[in-house]
Amino acid sequence: MSSRHDHCCVPLCKNDSRYKKNLSFHSFPKDGDRRQQWVNAIGRYPGPDFKISQCTKVCSVHFNAHDIKKSLGGRRLLRDGAIPQYFKWTQDKTERNSKPPKVRHIDREVSMNGDSNSKSSEDVSVMAPYPDHDYMCKETNVLSVEQQLNAALERIAKLERENHRLKSLQFTVNRFTNDPDMMAFYTGFQSYELFHSTFLSLEPTSSRLITYSQLLKQKPGSTHEMSYFIKTETLCPIDQFFLFLCRCKCGLFEKDLAVRFNISVSTVSRIIITWVNYLYHILGAQSIWPTREQINQSMPDCFKESYPNTRVILNCTELKCQTPSSVYLNSQRYSHYKSHTTFKGLIGITPSGAVSFVSQLYSGSISDVDITAQCGIITLIESNDDVMADKGFTIHDLLSKKGATLNIPPFFTENCSEFTKKQVQTQSIASVRIHVERAIRRVNDFHIFDSVVPLRFAGTLNQIWTVCALLTNFRGPLF
Question: Which of 28, 145, 356, 360 is most open to solvent, judged by the fewest CB atoms within 10 Å of its CB?
C-alpha cells in the first residue's frame, strides 16, 4: 500500500492520499516492458518535467476492480499484468456514448425458396435517426436557387441604400456639393465647382506631398524613397483640402475637426501644417502684381473719374497674439492701436478689389511707414503711379523717389477754407476706399484670426496669413 502522502501522477487526476483514504496508490513496475505499458497508458512520458521513481504512484481509480486484491494483512495489491485503463479523457467519451440510441423493431416478410406462402417474421434492429438532424424537420422551407439569388440581390440593394445614406451624413466635401451657401460658409468658395476646379489645379503636385515629420525621420544621406503623405492618410486629398479650409474659414478647433472627420487630433494637426506650407509655396509662387494695362482694363468707374492712375491701395491689419513672458518681446509686439500684443501685416489691393501684395508679419509696434519701407512693395511701384492709403502712411518721400504720387486723406488745419477743400478731398477718397474696405473684410472673414493666436502657432502663422489673404482672390472681383 502507498505511503501516507502519496498523490496520483496521471494527468487530470488530483487524488491524494491525505484526502482519499479509501484509495490505494501503486508504484510503477520494475520490469521495463510493463513500465512502458503503464507510461503509454497514462500518456505521460519521462522527461525534464517528469521522472519515474519509487515515489511515483498511480491511484486505484485507474484500474479494474478485479485487478486489485487484498493480502492477508488487509493491504491492497495489484495482480500481475494489471495496467491502468480508466482515465478522465476516456470517461468523458464513455459518458457521452453511455446512452444507447433508441431502436425500433420492424417486422418484415421474407420469401423463402420462392414460396410465397412460407413467410417468416424477423425482428430487425434499426438505429433511429437523431431528432436534431435537419432531415428530421417536419417542415422544410427549401428555396430554389433563383429565389435565393433574388433575396441576395434585394439584400445587396438595401445595404447599398443604407451605405449611401450614411455616406451622405459624413462631414466631407461631397455632402455640400449641391449647397453653395454651405460651401461658402465652410471654405470661402462660392460654389463646389469653383472649389473642385481649384483643387484640380493643385492635384498634380498635391499628390506628392511629404510631411515635415517624414523629413525629420529620414536619416541624413539616406537614398530611401519616402512614401507620399497623401497616400498614407485616412482622408483623401480633396477632403484634406476641405479640412484645412474649414480650419481657416470657420476657425474650427482641431479637436472639433477630429470628431467631424473621424480622425485623431494629431492627424488633423499634420494635415493643417502640411497643407498651409504647401499652399504657401504654390500660391506664393504665382505672380499677383498686375501690370498697368491690366489695372486699366479692370478699373471701376468710380476710380476712373477721380483717381485713374491708382495702382494699389495700401492698408495694414493686426492679428492679436498671446502675450509673451519676455518683457522685451512684449514691448516689441505691443500695439497701442489695439492695446494688445499683435502681429502686423500689410496688404496691397488693386482698384478692382483683388489682393495684389501681401507682406510678411511684423511685430505689432512697427509703424505703417516702416512696414511699407521694409516689405518691398516700393520696388514694384512705377513712375506716374498713384498709391492710395490711410493717414498713417506718410510715405511721400519713399514714393517721390519712384516718381509716384500718394493719395491720403488730408490733415486738419486751422484754416477753415482749407479745411473745406480738404474735407471734400477726404470724402472723395473715402468714397472709393469704402470698396477697398470690402476687400479687406474678406481677409477678416477667415475666423481663424478671431481669437488670440497662441505663441505655439507662431511658426506657421505667417504662412496661414499669406494663404488666407491670397485665397480671397478666388471669390472674384468686387464689381
Answer: 145
Q: What is the pLDDT of residues 217-249, one digit of tens each?
A: 666 665 555 554 444 567 888 999 999 999 999
- In order, the DSSP letters of 279-347 are HHHHHHTS-----HHHHHHT--HHHHHH-TTEEEEEEEEEEEBPPPS-HHHHHHHEETTTTEEEEEEEE
Going by their DSSP bridges, the two strands 386-388 and 405-407 should be labelled as parallel
Q: Which residues pair with 310 in a beta bridge?
A: 386
- Alpha-carbon distance values, 423 to 78, 129, 324, 391, 435 (Å): 129, 111, 42, 13, 19
d(CA 184, CA 181): 5
Q: Three-state DSSP class for 98?
A: coil
- Residue pair 143/133 in contact (Cβ under 8 Å)? The answer is no
The closest alpha carbon to 341, from 353, 356, 328, belongs to 328
The model's pLDDT over 184-208, given as tens digits with 9 standing for 90+, comes to: 999 999 999 999 999 999 988 877 7
DSSP H helices in 298-415: 301-306, 327-333, 368-375, 396-400
- The 3-state DSSP class for residue 128 equals coil
Q: Give pLDDT, residue 119.
A: 45
Spatial distance between the Cα atoms of 98 and 421, rounded to a whole number of angstroms: 120
Distance CA 430, CA 369 (A): 20
The stretch 348-370 carries a mean pLDDT of 92
pLDDT tens by residue, 62-97: 888 888 888 877 788 888 888 898 888 777 555 555
| Separation between Cα atoms, residue 226 and residue 199, nearest integer Å | 24
**All residues at 6 or more sequence positions from 126 whose CB lies less than 8 Å from its CB, including other chains:** 103, 104, 106
405 close to 399: Cβ distance less than 8 angstroms: yes
How far, in Å, CA of 158 to CA of 166, rounded? 12
b (16+ CB within 10 A) / e for 272-292: bbbbbbbbbeebeeeebebee
* Helix, strand, or coil (residue 66): helix
Contact indicator for 429, 445 with CB cutoff of 8 Å: no
Answer whether 342's CB lies under 8 Å from 321's CB.
yes
Asked if residues 453 and 167 have their Cβ atoms less than 8 Å apart, the reply is: no
On the 0-12 / 13-18 / 19+ scale of CB atoms within 10 A, 195 is buried
Contact between 53 and 72 (Cβ < 8 Å): no
Q: Residue range 256-282: average pLDDT? A: 91
Residues facing residue 406 across a β-bridge:
387
Please tell me whether the overall predicted TM-score, pTM, comes out greater than 0.70 for this model. Answer: no
3-class SS of residue 334 = strand
